[in-house]
């Protein structure tokens, strides 16, 4: 089973260029993928020399890394390139914290996350030397796309050598449907919570058991039910446990109103707790 064959990293000549390319090439190496580096801008001898020098310092051989140069609108060019080059995973450098203006207008990374037809990995903490991935948190939301997100989390874990996966089941507080006013109602609310946790754990464990043994073997699996706002809760949890990677379902098509009144993954995109893998078919 191979979920990724080709990776695209869209880069700019920023101060973090070298570390982002080294991190992207390392990910491609461990996932056994071809890496395509795409720069939207003019190709010059100076830029080419700089890129070639960085590539020479990567863990991959030169024939597994391709550099593409295109001019135009970055958002349009990268979106089209993902289709034309049959990209499975788009890697982008991202801001960990967006200010209010950036949140409402939307950064290029945020826009691409919504528009492209492949999975997206947002990097907020690339390193020049490898930092092992130990703990991955994945969304366990009761949704049609969740089994795919969990499968990708295990697949990536098996290749990166992660030791633990925590599957977070975000549960809306309204599911309890009990107003806690006294000891009796508190006890009733706790019983309902326990039943919901048991139901969600059973659902998630069924998904895990259906996965190929070669990607689940040796990985410690934990389930965690959280009652709270979807998106915000899992993001906060990933930050608290210091997860190395957060894996989420791809966001649905959103309008301007979704960004003014954020929900689900929009919370995470504006305040990334760690590197974020957004899984899409």
Automatic annotation (TrEMBL):
Residues 52-122 form the UspA domain. InterPro entries: Rossmann-like_a/b/a_fold (IPR014729), UspA (IPR006016). It comes from the Bacteria. Gene3D superfamilies: HUPs (3.40.50.620). Belongs to the universal stress protein A family. PANTHER family: STRESS RESPONSE PROTEIN NHAX, UNIVERSAL STRESS PROTEIN UP12. This is Universal stress protein family protein. It comes from Maribacter aquivivus.
């Amino acid at each position: 089973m191979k979920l990724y064959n080709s990776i695209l990293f869209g880069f700019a000549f920023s101060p973090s260029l070298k570390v982002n390319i080294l991190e992207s090439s390392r990910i491609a190496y461990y996932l056994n993928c071809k890496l395509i580096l795409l720069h939207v801008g003019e190709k010059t001898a100076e830029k080419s020399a700089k890129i070639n020098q960085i590539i020479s310092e990567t863990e991959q051989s030169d024939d597994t890394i391709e550099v593409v140069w295109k001019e135009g609108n970055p958002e349009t060019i990268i979106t089209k390139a993902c289709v034309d080059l049959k990209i499975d995973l788009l890697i982008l450098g991202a801001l960990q914290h967006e200010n209010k203006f950036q949140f409402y207008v939307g950064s290029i990374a945020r826009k691409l996350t919504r528009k492209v037809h492949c999975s997206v990995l947002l990097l907020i903490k690339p390193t020049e030397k490898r930092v092992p991935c130990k703990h991955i948190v994945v969304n366990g939301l009761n949704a049609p796309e969740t089994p795919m997100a969990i499968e990708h989390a295990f697949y990536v874990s098996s290749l990166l050598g992660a030791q633990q996966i925590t599957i977070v089941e975000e549960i809306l507080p309204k599911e309890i449907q009990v107003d806690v006013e006294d000891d009796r109602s508190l006890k009733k609310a706790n019983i309902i919570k326990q039943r919901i946790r048991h139901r969600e754990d059973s659902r998630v464990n069924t998904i895990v058991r259906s996965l190929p043994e070669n990607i689940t073997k040796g990985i410690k699996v934990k389930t965690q039910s959280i009652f709270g706002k979807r998106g915000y809760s899992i993001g906060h949890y990933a930050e608290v446990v210091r997860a190395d990677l957060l894996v989420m379902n791809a966001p649905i098509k959103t309008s301007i109103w979704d960004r003014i009144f954020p929900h689900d993954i929009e919370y995470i995109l504006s305040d990334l707790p760690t590197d974020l893998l957004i899984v899409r078919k």
